[in-house]
Amino acid sequence: MPTATDVSVEGALVASTFERLYEALRRLTPRDGLSLTAASTLRRLQRHGPHRLCALHLAEGVTQPAMTQLVTRLERDGLATRGPDPVDRRVVVVTITEAGRALVEQRRARYTTALADVLDGLAAPDRAAIMAALQAMERLAEVITE
Length: 146
What we know:
Pfam families: MarR (PF01047). Keywords: DNA-binding. The chain is mainly alpha-helical. The chain folds into 2 domains: 1-30; 33-145, Winged helix-like DNA-binding domain superfamily/Winged helix DNA-binding domain (Arc Repressor Mutant, subunit A). 71% of the residues lie in helices and 8% in strands.
């Protein structure tokens, strides 16, 4: 069984690697004027369906006024709509539009191509190790986002 020190060291290594990976992946992010938070919000709406505005701000880790401004921009750009919740009309619900879905898919395709090019430059054992680690990383992401 790992000790608290072992887990602490592992946590520091994972954090450091994820920080470097995040910085590296930002360089591959399509330059289309969409902020990282806007892109994340659209992906969330695409994956999980309509969200209450208050749930979006909590899920994305921004203030409610910041999310309200972001949704206003997404709405202005035709990427999302907002309207009343059918159950509680006092509540605002945000929904991705077809244009928003198309943009998410275009970004994903460009991002996938860029990552494939990077992976192609790695040695086969490194690619295999990355692929083997993906399931555990996905579980980690699920635990973090629950």
